[in-house]
Amino acid sequence: MSTSVERRNDAPLGTVRLPRSKAVRSYPIDYIHYPESDGEPVANNTQHYELISMTKDGLDTLFADRDDVFVAADLFWYPVKGEPKIVVAPDVMVAFDRPPGPRRSYKQWEEDDKPFHVVFEFLSDANTPGEMAKKALFFNRHGVEEYYLYDMEKGILQVFVRYAGELLPVETDPNGWTSPRLGVRFEVTWNSGSKERGEPSLALYYPDGTRFLTYLERVTAQAKAEQGRIEAEQGRIKAEQGRIKAEQERIEAEQGRIKAEQEHIAALSELAAEREATRILQEKLKAAGIEF
Description:
Blueprint: H1 46-62, E1 69-73, E2 77-78, E3 92-96, E4 106-107, E5 118-123, H2 129-141, E6 146-151, E7 156-163, E8 166-170, E9 177-178, E10 185-190, E11 200-205, H3 215-287
Parallel strand pairs: 2-4, 5-6
Antiparallel strand pairs: 1-3, 3-5, 6-7, 7-8, 9-10, 10-11
């Protein structure tokens, strides 16, 4: 769209007067819009989603009794106030010294200026090298202490830990790596035991050695535990019923013994009464001069 100009009649040649236009509004920094979604799906495929879900749920469980750890997944993180274009949404992230709870985005200046200390990215064929390089620079620039990048197809786990102010790659042990911040151990496994033949999977373990479970594994384990609880309760009820039955039989036996004792006592009493009656009769007969 072109803009027309006109020269004032009394102005020197070359002087122009711009047409009137609406004043441009300048918004205070607090009124800048920070988007909460980019319209993209949370995960690129089912494996990606399961990894995000397993990791996030496992970390929620790990820190369930703490009120100073915030765990999130696919949440927009804005580290700089007034710069809505400086943003990233890691697959999973953990911030220490921040309370848990719902958030529509993570605006660092509203979080006591605490960055996410640990972040996870699960790489698939939908991610480009350039995209991941930009994320690595972002994490390095904005205070991430541990960065885990796992290639789901190749089974390669890359670990970056902050040393001397920089996120640097760490050579991990073939038997796994334990996070200094989380206490969680990471291990890449292969379903056939061999890289050449099998498919990789990333296993995470709690500090006590228990493995993080997927949603299906967790539901199955809960159902199995509930079934075990029900069976144990049924066994307890059955044992209690057996105890009650045995107690009833003991009571019935005791009642039978008491009844027999009472009958015996009654018989003895009757015999004693008969003997007393006989003695009295004998005394009366003797008194009457009747011998027998």
